[in-house]
Write a structure and sequence with these properties.
Elements (H helix, E strand, L loop, with lengths): L2 H7 L3 H9 L3 H8 L7 H10 L6 H4 L4 H4 L1 H10 L1
């Protein structure tokens, strides 16, 4: 799920995620609108804070395989 879709699902979701992660809400907004890429270290944090609703793959669709090759290996084994 895209970060923007996650925010649209529930009123206050962005503020809750900001509080849970310590990431400023304006920065989360920039990431959700894809004005700036989400740093890999923050992707894991967001994935955990959203209970897996927003995954690392969702946040870094173009390069997640290079950043987290273990996820790519697991995806290939499951297929």
């Amino acid at each position: 799920m895209h970060l923007s879709d996650f925010f649209a699902q529930e009123h206050g979701a962005q503020a809750k995620l900001a509080k849970a992660t310590g990431i400023p809400a304006p920065l989360l907004s920039q990431w959700a609108s894809e004005d700036r890429p989400v740093p890999p270290v923050r992707c894991v944090e967001i994935e955990r804070a959203t209970g897996g609703a927003v995954t690392r793959r969702d946040l870094r669709p173009k390069d997640w395989r290079e950043i987290w090759p273990e996820l790519a290996d697991a995806a290939e084994q499951a297929a």
